[in-house]
Structure formats: C-alpha cells, structure tokens
Amino acid sequence: MKLNQNIIDMEYAVRGRIPIRAAELRRQGRKTIPCNIGNPQALGQKPITFYRQVLSLLEEPNRIKIERNNQDSHLSDYVLDYAENFLEKMETGMGAYTDSKGPLFIREAVAKYIDARDAKSPEGILHANPEHIFLTDGASEGAKNVLELLITATEDGIMIPIPQYPLYSATIQRCGGTQVNYYPDEENGWTLDREELQRSCDEATANGVNIKAVVVINPANPTGAILDRDSIKQVVEFSLENRLAIIADEVYQENLYGGEFISFASAVKGTDVPLFSLHSASKGFYGECGHRGGYLEVRNLPQVDDNNIPFIDVLFKQASVNLCSNTVGQALMYLIANPPEIESEQYQQFIHERQSILDDLFDKATMVRSAFDEMEGVECFGKTGAMYLFPRLNILPKDTGDFEYCMTLLEKTGLTTVNGSGFGQKKGTHHLRFAFLPPKEMLERVLPEWIAFHKNYIR
Amino acid sequence: MKLNQNIIDMEYAVRGRIPIRAAELRRQGRKTIPCNIGNPQALGQKPITFYRQVLSLLEEPNRIKIERNNQDSHLSDYVLDYAENFLEKMETGMGAYTDSKGPLFIREAVAKYIDARDAKSPEGILHANPEHIFLTDGASEGAKNVLELLITATEDGIMIPIPQYPLYSATIQRCGGTQVNYYPDEENGWTLDREELQRSCDEATANGVNIKAVVVINPANPTGAILDRDSIKQVVEFSLENRLAIIADEVYQENLYGGEFISFASAVKGTDVPLFSLHSASKGFYGECGHRGGYLEVRNLPQVDDNNIPFIDVLFKQASVNLCSNTVGQALMYLIANPPEIESEQYQQFIHERQSILDDLFDKATMVRSAFDEMEGVECFGKTGAMYLFPRLNILPKDTGDFEYCMTLLEKTGLTTVNGSGFGQKKGTHHLRFAFLPPKEMLERVLPEWIAFHKNYIR
Questions:
Q1: Is B289–A317 a contact, with Cβ atoms under 8 angstroms apart?
Q2: Are the C-beta atoms of B67 and B75 separated by less than 8 Å?
Q3: Given a cut of 70, is residue B244 above it in pLDDT?
Q4: Cα angle at B269 between B267 and B274, to 5 degrees?
Q5: pTM, to two decimals
Q6: Collapsing DSSP states into helix, strand and coil, what is residue B163?
Q7: Interface check B59 vs A, CB under 8 A
Q8: Relative to the CA of A192, which of A366, B239, B360, B435 has its CA 20 to 30 Å away?
Q9: What is the pLDDT of residues A103-128, one digit of tens each?
Q10: DSSP secondary-structure letter at B153?
C-alpha cells in the first residue's frame, strides 16, 4: 500500500530520534530530564490555581451551588461567580459542540485581550474583530489550516526562518508546497532585516517559486530570541512591497522576562498586509499544554481572487469540518483573556503565581546561560524569551554534528535536548535547543555534569 | 491571493446553508430547534454524573484531599479513589502534553474495552494492541489522518456509502483524491452487498481510479441504520478480494436501542484486511461532543511498500506533529472504557442515567417515526440506530428538491434539519436527516406543526 510520500518524508525532530531514545532509556529504568520540548507542567510547573478552580467547576456545574452552601468551601465567591457567569454565557455547557469558531463571548474576550495588549503600542490600536478570531486546538491547528489554505501547488512557497519550529517545515512538506529559508542574524541577537528577506524571496522567485507568505516566530522558537521593533518593521515593509501575508507565531508573547513584545497586529496597522496571528494556552506563564487551547486571529484579509468567496468564509468552512475546538481549551483562552480583576479576592494569589513562574523561568535561563560560559566554544545569542536557549556549539569532534552531541549527552547524563539540525541552521554551524524548564535543584545537579561532559566530549 | 481550490470546493452541509440561516433567524429573535447535528447536550441531555465528577477532580487535584476531609462531601469514596488512581497513572497531570498517541494506560484501558465489546462475537476476539491505538481530538481527526495518509494522487480513490457523513467527501476533496460512491440498499434497511460494492469498484477502476479503501459507517450516519452480520461479512470479503483497507466509522456503536452492533475488529479476524476503526466520546449515551475525545484503532497494518518504514511509524509521525490530543478528551475515553464497577457505590446511578438516556432517545425516535406515518409520501427505512432518522420524501412540489423542503421547514417551524442532498443520495430521490435529540415536550409541540407544514407544502 502506497502512502503519502509527503508524510513519509516529513521530519519532526522535537518528537524525533532523540526523544524516542530517551523513552527507551526510561523504559530501561534510567532517569532522563526532558528538555526537548516546551512542556512545563511535565517538569513540575504548577498550574495557575484560579484557572483550574474555574475549569473544575465548569465540568460539574451543580457544584457551584454546593460550594456556596458550604461554609468551609475553599473557593472564593469570586471564583464561584466567575464560573457561574461563564456557564450562563456558554449556554449549552462544556459537553456540546460550539460554533465552529468558538462561542462568540469567548472571541469577544479574546478581541479585548488583544486590544489591551496593543493599547500601549506607539501605532495605537485598531480594534480586533471577534468575527476574525478562530478558537483552535492549540496553535498548531491554526498554523496547519492557514498553510493548507495557502498552498495550492508545489511551486507555492512559504518563507520560514532558519532555525524554525518544525511544525512549519513538516506542514509545508505535508501540503506539498516549497519551503523557502531566510536567516535571522544570529550574532546580532537573531534580528531580521529586509535585505536578507529580499535575498531569500528573490532567489526563490528566480527558481520559479511563487511565495505566498512569510512565517515569523516571536519570541522565537527554537532560539528564544525576542524581535526588536526594527526587525518587526522590516518584516512588515518587506511583506507590503512583495504582497505577501505574514504568519505570526506569537505563542510565547507572555514569555518575555523583561523584554518587550511587539505584536504584528499593531505593526500591520495602516497597511493592507494580511496577517495570521497565532496564540496558545500551552505557553506563557500558564503552560497548559495538555488542554490544547489556542486561537488564530486574522487581519487585512485579502479578497479571494476569481471566485468572489470571502476569505473568511473559506477559513470558516475549514474550521467547520473539524466541528469545533475542545471546550476546555476554549475556556482556558477565556481565562487567559479575562484574568481575575484587581479588586478581586483572587488577584494577589494570581499575580504572585504568575510572577513566581516567570521569575523562576528567568532564573533557570540565567543558570543555564552561566553554565554555557563554562563550556568552551559554546555561545548563546539574543535576549532571553520563550522557554528556550539555542547555544551554538563552535567546537565539536571532527566529522560529527550536533545530533551526535545531543545523543551522547542523553546517553551520558540523561539530558534530553534537540539537535540544532532538527530545526535547520546555517550551513556549517551546530546548535542545540534547551528548554529551561526543569526544577532548579535538578539543574543544579545536572549542569555541572553537562559541563564535565562537554569538556570531555570536545577534547 | 489564490487559495487551495480543494478547500474552496469542499462542502459540509451539516454546518452549511441551512444551519447558517438558522443562526440568522436566532439573531433576529426567532426560536429554532437544532436537529441538524448530533449534539445532544445542546438540546438538554445531561452529562453522566460520574464522568463529570471525575473530570472536575482531575482539573483540581488538591480537591481530592479536601473532599476526603469534608464529611458532607457530595462525592463518594469511589469517585475520589478513581480520580486519585487516574492522576497517579497520568504522572504529569492534565496540563502537560502526553505521548503523541496518548498515555499508555489509557490506550491499555481502551484495548480492554474493545476486547470486552467483541468477547461475545462468534469469531472470538483477537486482542487489541494498545500500541495500535491512537487517542484523537474526536473521531474526525483520526479519519482525516488516515485519508491524508492513503491519498497520494488524484487517481487514488476512497469508496464511501451514499448517503454519507460529509466529513468523508470533504476530506477526500481536501486531500485531492477521488470519491467513489457505493449505494446501500435503502428499501432493504440500508444493507450492503458485494455485488454493489464490486460494481462501484469496477466502474471506478475502469475509469483509471486506484481504489485504496472503503469507508463504512455503522450504525450509519445519516441513515441511522444498523448493519447486520451479513452486510459486515460482505464488506470484509469484498475488501479481502480487492486488497482494500476498511475505514470503519463506529462512533455510534453504543447508540443501538435494541439492535446488535458487530464490530469490524471482530469481522476482520482471520483475514489480513487492514482496518482503521474510529470511535468518539461525542456520541453514545455520553454525548460529550464539546470535549473532543476519540480514538483510532488499527489492525492488520500492511507493510509500507518500497521504503520499509513501518506503517505504524508513519501514523505516529502524523500524530506527533499535532503533539497530542487534549487530555480531557483522553480522560473521557478512559472513563468510557472504564465505567464504575458493578459493586461500586456509583454503579446504580450510572446504569440508571445510561438507560434513561438511551430509552429517551429511542422513545423520541419512535415519536418522530410515528409522525412520518402521518406525512404523505414520507418513508423511513432501516433499524433505528445512531441519533438520526433519514426519511425519504417521495412527494415534493414540481422542480423542487429536499433543500427547498428543509429551508422552508426551517422558515415555517424553526425545525433545523439537513437536506439529503447534503449527504449525497441516489439520483432522483429526496431525503432529510433529522437528529432525534430535542426534549419530548418540544417534539410533542413541533411534530404536529411539521405534519401540518408537510400537508400544506406538498399540496
């Protein structure tokens, strides 16, 4: 039986050979430390109490009354009111299919959240339209739908940064399109400039590729770098001039540790550059990966040529075939968009939990960066964002690459990382991606082991 | 901007023009009765108490201890133990990505559930393999993955029954393959026979189509018919002789109302016919559509030709790009596979709720069938299964079809159904699909209106 060659050929290193080997080791009783994937709760990060209290009530609505009548209830009136209010708006409860885009009141909340996020931008806001927001099962679903819609033939090209999150290369492959690489400037903190974008575009076009869109991941995966205002501007100007859409993967927009996030929604204001912006409940300080919540927001939708069908209707039809995204993920996006109010009983706890998680992540990133300083030939560029560091390995044994490095690191120390080649990288360079999620005590124990391993390995 | 024509062309009537019009009417303040979709909880069906009590605890694990210390807790020790036990096995909790196939312990539970289901079959069981089970976001995801994997070129054909659930036609269209129709025998209760299957296959083959698989939906959607043992046997023999895979959509396997369900897993025993069997948490007596739980079970996997990659690995890679299905849907599949034990405190309530829901559904189907008896030229064939009736409309005004009938029915009575043409039907016939889910009181009110409408409409 012949299978789809695009799927056979597709590569997905984040769940590829190294994590598969790690799973084998665990079955043999070895301890491994999974730094190959941004999965914070698998490494002990606690969920936000408020979110889970609400979700718990949504699954069992009659508990709201029970808790109100229980003088010793551990739940505040605020939580009970919040859940009751949610269920009133979510008329058919958690067990029914919703509108294919997700319930309107959640999309309205997300639109307000986007507006509030962008209110401080120098461009000022252009209100988000709830009808142009689609709730999705994680951000991956949104990304796949957009790519599937844009790729109509082998010569259709999608520009992606190298290194990139392999969802993009895998999906372009699966849809039968052409991957077109551009290279952020590593030594300048992974910044972007128009010359490089234009070079990439022109070379591909000269080879007969019809470029449709440019993917930007900010804060970046795998590099963790945060794009500065100038980089964002260069992407928008480039897209405008070349009539391309922007696919902005902004799932790490709340993983900043002091840097500034500039949204593409604010940056495309005043232009007609089509924008597909993705967000997720899996990342941020919440890290609710398992719940698979997310959204796709679209702006400046172009007319669909020839056949007068509005673009938004085609996106809607695509969403319809999936019926709807899961309601718990939808509820999480609502919670993210609608955190406890400042005057509420829950606010202090919420803020404390959020800040502790972000502080802890930044401390851990700093610990790991310090360890790199003790490793000969290891350099790490860019501001710290997302959940990743992507150090360059300047010294490796002759005729070996980063795959061998990561595999040996796993075998010797249990540390599970992903080789830079799994994300793509500039020819002749070697990297690895490290998700800085393990508890500090674990890092304190394993980082010296890694330093010792490194010294020995590159000798 | 040119979009994927396959997606522009794809049709999905279940969420198509009639439900879109119904939504418009609701916005204008009209009451509508959504019988266009199998979404029981949207029409007042209550969730199974036990399931929701467990899900509620899973979201807020520290409540297990709180409830144990609360003498007035409304939860039984059995529920608390069940949730605690689940969380012990689900080591990383509900907020972490799981294995891409889903956690092993849930797949083991599903394998046992399949074995128990088939234990009574005359063929005897061949144990389900947990490694060949993939937990999915609803059954739709599994169906789409399988079709995407099998369709490699325009001439690749997938046989589907007419009428069919439009997920199949839409996905075949989207993947760029060829839809090949076969026709169950309506007047014989929508049974299948080899001659018709072979005719369909031979005609397509003569036209250059390379048929890869045959889709069977049992109990059927949209007809609600339950396939008898002979029909199942004919499909297996046909597939064996023609070297085809079977895609068995068995999401309604617990919606039987007295009929007998014969699984394809039992029917392919002793053959090498590849089987992809789909199930879902959205249907059955649970009807948890919004939670998007489901699984794909594969049997008799063929070797992948040429390039020695095991088929299962390609399916796994496909699942990996999605990271994992949502954990709450996974937990629901576990609950469905592992109902309360007979000796438990929860058992009586669980059985009572299950039986009430199934009895209520059957009563409602009977009410609607009786109404059909009073409508001239309306005939409904097949045993009642699933959540649907699919009456044939033998009399319609000249030069009109079932679409006009359903649209006018909506405008006049608020009843939202789907026209038979949305599922495909034998040329020259007209039908509609009616999901028999509204509360009895609502049916008692609206069925006479429908009868009156019908009398007037066909005059």
A1: no
A2: yes
A3: yes
A4: 85
A5: 0.95
A6: coil
A7: yes
A8: A366
A9: 999 999 999 999 999 998 887 778 99
A10: S
A439 touches chain B (CB under 8 A): no
Strands (E), B183-227: 210-217
Q: Dihedral angle at the C-alpha atoms of B389, B392, B395, B401, nearest 10 degrees?
A: 90
Q: Is there a common fold for A5-45+350-458 and A104-337?
A: no
> B305: burial class by Cβ within 10 Å (0-12, 13-18, 19+)?
exposed
| Fold that domain B5-45+350-458 belongs to in CATH | Aspartate Aminotransferase, domain 1 (3.90.1150)
User: DSSP letters along A308-364, please?
Assistant: --BHHHHHHHHHHHT----HHHHHHHHHHHSPPPTTSTTHHHHHHHHHHHHHHHHHH
Fold designation for B104-337 = Aspartate Aminotransferase; domain 2 (3.40.640)
Query: In this structure, are residues B329 and B142 in contact, taking their beta carbons and an 8 Å threshold?
Result: no
The maximal CA–CA distance of chain A, rounded, in angstroms, is 73
3-state secondary structure of A439: coil
Question: In the predicted model, is pLDDT for residue B14 greater than 80?
Answer: no
Choose among B14, B15, B152: nearest Cβ to A5: B152
Residue with tokens 């080899």, as numbered in its chain: B194
Q: What is the mean pLDDT of residues B438-448?
A: 95
Question: How far does CA B135 lie from the centroid of its chain?
Answer: 15
Contact list, A41 vs chain B (CB under 8 Å): 92-93, 95-96
Window 354-393 of A: residues touching B by CB (8 A cutoff) are none
Closest to A415 (Cα-Cα) out of A434, A428, A400: A434
3-state secondary structure A99-112: CCCCCHHHHHHHHH
Which tokens go with B83? 């949730």
**CA angle at residue A237 from A235 to A239, to 5 degrees?**
65
A164 in contact with chain B, both atoms CB, cutoff 8 A: no
Q: Does A154 touch chain B (CB under 8 A)?
A: no
> Residue type for A215, please?
V
C-beta atoms surrounding A360 within 10 Å: 17
Contact A380, A389 (CB under 8 A): yes
Is it true that the peptide bond before A310 is cis, omega within 30 degrees of 0?
Answer: no
Contact B323 A150 (CB under 8 A): no
Average pLDDT, stretch B297-321?
82
Nearest by Cα to B410 from B107, B34, B40:
B34
Average pLDDT, integer, range A266-284: 95
Extents of the domains making up chain A: 5-45+350-458, 104-337
- List the 215-274 stretch of B: residues with Cβ below 8 A of A: 245, 274
Distance CA A314, CA A394 (A): 47
Task: Choose among A306, A275, A337: nearest CA to A103.
Answer: A337
The answer to whether residue A174 neighbours chain B at the CB level (below 8 Å) is: yes
Specify the residue for token string 């992903």.
Answer: A418
**Average per-residue pLDDT for chain B:** 93
d(CA A355, CA B300): 52
Residue B299 DSSP SS3: strand
Q: In this structure, are strands B415-416 and B33-34 parallel, antiparallel, or unpaired? A: parallel
Q: At what angle do helices B49-59 and B347-373 cross, to 10 degrees?
A: 130
CB-neighbour burial class of residue B46 (10 A; exposed 0-12, middle 13-18, buried 19+):
middle
Enumerate the residues of chain A whose CB falls inside 8 A of the CB of residue B141.
322
Cβ A28 vs Cβ A38: under 8 Å: no
Phi, psi (rounded to 5 degrees) for A189:
75, 35
Q: Which residues of A touch B167 (CB under 8 A)?
A: 321
Beta pairing class for B156-161 and B210-217: parallel
B291 touches chain A (CB under 8 A): yes
Token look-up 């009181």 returns B441
Whose tokens are 């009843």? That residue is: B415
Confidence of residue A14 (pLDDT cuts 50, 70, 90): low
Chain B residue nearest residue A10, CA to CA: B317
